[in-house]
Amino acid sequence: MREPVIATALLIALTGWCAVHGVSGIAAGRCADRRLEAAEIVMALAVVAMMAPAFDPLPQGLWAALLAASAAWPVRRSPAPAGRHQERHAVPPGAWAHHAHHVVGASAMAALAVAPKHHHAGGTGVHQAAHAAVPAWTLLLLATYFLGYAAVGVAALLLPRPAMGRHPARDRAPGPPALLRLVSARRTVMAIGMFYMLVGMS
Predict the structure, then answer these.
(1) How large is the C-alpha radius of gyration of the chain?
(2) How many Å apart are CA 81 and CA 94, to the nearest integer?
(3) CA 175/CA 166 separation, integer angstroms
(4) How does pLDDT run across 50-66, given as a tens digit for each residue?
(5) Integer Cα distance of 64 and 81 in angstroms
(6) Would 164 disulfide with which of 17, 39, 168, 172, CB 3.0-4.6 Å?
(7) For 145-171, what is each residue's pLDDT tens digit?
């Protein structure tokens, strides 16, 4: 059983890095979408807490409430004001797709946080099984989704990007390329962590 323990510890460390990277991005003003960044920090901390419940001081009901709030928080946007500051308040390119992905993950985590669970004998925190409150087919469906998201993220990080269109500055999300790749890597790590955790719970 050493391999699952090592894999779990590695994913806990990587997911913890995701939370630290998000906090540092907000503190340094390097994130294009503060609401989504804050919501993803909550998500990363929740994944760490679920994979290492022995070190989690918060009750599951509180995690469920935080995750539900983080799913709704990025979507609550007022219309962009007219005038010269309109572009500054506009939704960054591709933000709605990231919001939808975050809503799926945060909603799944909120449901798992309040679902009754039992531990496999000798299992770690990630090796839990949800009872009928979360059917196994739902866990496997979600695991398949996050595996696909992770595969697309890995391909985007490893394969060269196609040439941009006629207006690259308009089509590309704001931020330096190195920072954007780190954010993409962070979301890919989170998807891998979600896949690993959901498979362990199913």
Answers:
(1) 18
(2) 20
(3) 19
(4) 888 888 888 888 999 99
(5) 33
(6) 168
(7) 999 999 999 999 888 665 544 444 444
